[in-house]
Amino acid sequence: MSEPAVLISGLEMQYGDKRAVDGLSMQVDRGSITAVLGPNGAGKTTTLETCEGYRRPQAGTVRVLGLDPHRERAALLPRIGVMLQAGGAWSGVRAMEMLDHIASLHAHPLDTAMLHDRLGLGDCGRTPYRRLSGGQQQRLGLAMALVGRPELVFVDEPTAGMDPQARRTTWELLEEIRGDGVTVVLTTHHMDEAERLADQIHIIDRGRLIASGSPTELTSGGRSATIRLVVTRPFPDGAPESLRRELGSETEVTQLDDRSMLVTGPADGGTLGTVSRWCEKHDVLPESLTLGRATLEDVFLRLTGRELVP
């Protein structure tokens, strides 16, 4: 069995009174696309910056391609690519000049013209970086991360600001490089993107790993349906606990905000009927009551109680 591309064991990072990463352990398999998801402040950025060698672990160990990313960073850098969510280029440099410069730093770079064409940079190759749209900057950032033929690439919000066509092109390119054996570590606020691309998903909250699995494993999880209850005025105190008692132990209830709850449980009319009767009993007027298949977003909300927002 090959060594994981990324192996994190008991990672701890603290800044003042805030524990950003709290004993985190996880791994990324070689040749996979792995999504790391979490609410803002969950510890994702600190964890990935440690993997990229920008931060030294305060406790625990991190190995990337078998190397210590901080002590052996010089040996690791030629083997990885990093796509930042924003920045990474000088404000006045033209897009193709920047890509050609990055290519010149590598021994065996990809053909920049090929990346230029694949990522639709033809209309902005001579445009200064500061004048590029957000989507164009993201496409250039991805090209810069890939041009050195990395074994492992970290991509942060790869399709932010892109139109639907550019987004799909980016997805196809990431899937292609995975097919060539490149490992991709992805962070995104788009659940459909994670569900489409990822072989494995790690969900982090408050510095800890709270769930791992394939999109199918996470969205099935022994529960086959969700009910979204949205009401016209705030729920009474203790509403989630009260509804949970009515539904029984096979069903989970998560209050998302003062006017909406997520019920995850068996896919049958009995569950829907119980929720309706509970609303009538407690003088709760539904605005909408929707039954559907569990999505990755539903799982994320149930586990963290918070939306994944940029």
Would you spell out the secondary-structure blueprint of this structure?
Layout: E1 6-15, E2 18-28, E3 33-37, H1 44-51, E4 59-64, H2 73-76, E5 80-83, H3 95-104, H4 112-118, H5 134-146, E6 152-156, H6 164-179, E7 183-187, H7 191-197, E8 200-205, E9 208-213, H8 215-220, E10 225-231, H9 239-247, E11 252-257, E12 260-265, H10 269-281, E13 286-292, H11 296-304
Parallel strand pairs: 3-7, 3-8, 5-6, 6-7
Antiparallel strand pairs: 1-2, 1-4, 8-9, 10-12, 10-13, 11-12
Helix pairs in contact: 3-5
Protein architecture, described:
The structure is a single chain. The protein folds into 2 domains: 6-218, 3-Layer(aba) Sandwich (Rossmann fold); 224-293, Alpha-L RNA-binding motif (Alpha-Beta Plaits), CATH 3.30.70.1560. It is built from 11 helices and 13 strands. The protein has helices at residues 44-51, 73-76, 95-104, 112-118, 134-146, 164-179, 191-197, 215-220, 239-247, 269-281, 296-304, and strands at 6-15, 18-28, 33-37, 59-64, 80-83, 152-156, 183-187, 200-205, 208-213, 225-231, 252-257, 260-265, 286-292. The strands form 3 sheets. It has a 6-stranded mixed β-sheet with strand order 5-6-7-3-8-9. β6 (152-156), α6 (164-179) and β7 form a beta-alpha-beta unit. α3 packs parallel to α5 (134-146). The longest helix has 16 residues, at 164-179. It is elongated and about 70 Å long. The mean pLDDT is 89.
Kindly state the percentage of residues in helix. Answer: 25-40%
Distance between the termini: 37 Å
Mean pLDDT: 89
Count of discrete domains = 2
User: How would you write the strand order of the largest sheet?
Assistant: 5-6-7-3-8-9
Overall morphology? elongated
Tally of DSSP β-strands: 13
CATH topology call of the largest domain: Rossmann fold
Structural class: alpha/beta
Measured by DSSP, the beta-strand proportion falls in: 25-35%
- The CATH superfamily name of the largest domain is P-loop containing nucleotide triphosphate hydrolases
* Cα Rg: 22 Å
Q: What's the SSE pattern? A: EEEHEHEHHHEHEHEEHEHEEHEH
CATH architecture of the largest domain: 3-Layer(aba) Sandwich
Oligomer: single chain
Segments where pLDDT lies below 50 for 5+ residues? none
SS field, number of helical segments = 11
